Amino acid sequence: MSRKSASLLTKTQRRRLRNDFEELNENKKRRDQQRIRDRLQAGTFDFRLLADLSDRQLELAFDDASDEELRAALSDAYLTVERIRELREYDRDDLIETARVRRDEYAADGDDAGSLATLELRTEAEVRDATETETEARLTGSRWTKYANAVMALGAAGFALSAVLWSLDQLFGTSLWAGNNALVVTVFVLIFLGLSGWTLIMGANVLKHDVSPYVRRLLDEQLSS
Asked: Which of 128, 173, 191, 223 is deepest in the core (most CB within 10 A)?
């Protein structure tokens, strides 16, 4: 980042904030604090002009900043915005609703601002509902896997039974496996039920929780476009 560029705070103000105005008397401290407040207010209001800045300009603005530096700055910006919201007692969900309206307006009129259209803004209730839905989906998926594994146990039992019968035939010269049609049929039925049951259950799980939601999203996008 070029230190010669204009910024929200002056170089002197940044230095005095870092050392907590320790070199100033009380009158000069209050004067500088007032100037910083004025700059903070003016800079914050400038976001009304920057919210629909093109994606390309946003990318170029931070092209020479490291990811570590930018992530730290964005985190502190988020903290600052949240503190102002709390101090003014603004409801977060109300701000999100307003931001959604602005996002849609800017996305409709803006040039090269594709990130606006894809920006996801969710209220606390929506985040909570989404979390509950995801948790339920994971639990449901676990249940489906449990059922599938239980059915697969039938197939494993069939394989185990065939191995035991074949081994007895080899060791003792019996005809339990080779000559007993009922046992052979039983083994193949167990194996078939295990494999087909597992495939059907897991396939239905994927269809319900992965394929169907994707298809619904595609249809919703087509209908809304």
From this structure: 191
Q: Which residues of the chain have pLDDT under 70?
A: 1-5, 110-111, 126-144, 176-180, 209, 220-225
Contact 190, 157 (CB under 8 A): yes
Whether residue 96 contacts residue 45, with contact meaning beta carbons closer than 8 Å, is answered with no
Number of alpha carbons in the 13 Å side-chain half-sphere of residue 10? 9
Helix ranges, the chain (H)? 11-18, 26-45, 47-50, 55-61, 67-88, 92-109, 114-118, 124-172, 181-206, 212-224
Distance (Å, whole) CA 104 – CA 125:
21
Cα–Cα distance, 168 to 149 (Å, whole number) = 28
**Contacts for 43 with CB less than 8 Å, ≥ 6 apart:** 8
CA distance 104 to 38: 30
φ/ψ bin of 120: left (φ > 0), alpha (ψ from -120 to 50), beta (otherwise): beta
Calpha distance 63→66 (Å, rounded): 8
User: What pTM did the predictor assign?
Assistant: 0.54
Cα 175 to Cα 165: distance, rounded to the nearest angstrom? 8
Q: Which two tokens stand for residue 167?
A: 């081994």
Q: Is residue 186 within 8 Å of residue 161, measured between CB atoms?
A: yes
Residue 162 pLDDT: 81
Q: Are 163 and 221 in contact (CB under 8 A)?
A: no
